[in-house]
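User: structure tokens for this one?
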Amino acid sequence: MTRIGKFQWDDGGRATSGYVGITGDCVTRSIAIATGLAYRDVYKTLTERYGSTPRDGVPRSVYTPYLEELGWKEQPISPLAIPLERYDFESGITLVLCQDQFGRRSHLCTICDGVLFDTWDPCDDDGVYRVVRCWRATDTAVCSARLGAGVTEVRHAGDLTQSEFEKIIQRLRAIDNTARNQASTESERENALRMMQSLLLRHNLSREDLASDEAVDSTMYARVACPVNGSKSLIWEKVLATYVAEHIFPMVQWYSGRKGHRTIFFFYGPRTDVENSVQLFRELLLTIASAAKILYGGYSRGSGASYAEGYVTSLPKSTSYGDPQQDQDAPTTEVTSQALMQKRSLLVHERSSDWLFAECGIRLVSTRRRLRDFRDPAAEQVGRKHGSEHRIDLPTAPKRLN
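Assistant:
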């Protein structure tokens, strides 16, 4: 018997299956994680049985028979209504249905050997969510081989490694050259186009993926959402988003908002930079939150929040886009280069803001933040020490379109 001790971000393979946007797809996601089935297949099955899209939730009367067909059996809960973070789970994979204390909100998640696999951590809502039902796999059940073997690395059916993805892109480019070659016969061009369309659909790609990185960076803008835990954004989460945007990816901007009980950080700007900034933001977020929970039992208030704030403020700063006036002894050529990069960043900011308004209908306004009443100087100092020792590894691999 073990309690939840770790949170692992896992979307069940939703992004690699070609689905985008923020949804309430916990049923589809959890079943895909627990069973190892492809997200797209689970989504399709639930859609057929529900008669509607499962992106905003599925009734228990629909997914319970589906779980039984997959070999998952409901287990009795004793005692009832224990907070999720205090419940003792058996070893192995467990599908858990939890509800808030008023029964207004329900959530299905997957837990394996003390690790919660989800896109957000219900345990962070201070005992709001309580366990009401559990499902365990029988001997003949469809079960995730990855979780069953104790592998926590997120990889689902249909996912591609970077090497596999690059090989597919190279093949598509070769087929595209054949289709565009005037020396090819008409049947050769038709076959090439048919083969290209099949590969694009199979791997959720488009012709934009075949363009060069430089062309995409110079012409494509995007906005990507990154949900965080809790119904309110924390001070250190906002400082972290500012750090990523100003010191690591200066072409990117961000803002935060709410959808239901979730807080969402939106990053927008050049597409590749946005995707990389979201990846880095999520990695830093999980690292800092996990360290705060281990040392102080949480990160949203008290000493844990002070630790997280100290950690973020001491992360290494990049001077590549700094103020030229900060270093009076810098060579003229270096100062000029920095000034040019600053000018380019401002131009990209202006264009991306115009794009955000034109494409998404969003015009941003600034708001004031309220400081916390309680601060723990000792915890903040520990956070500063750990943050100053953190090494930032930038995501550099080519990214696929969402």
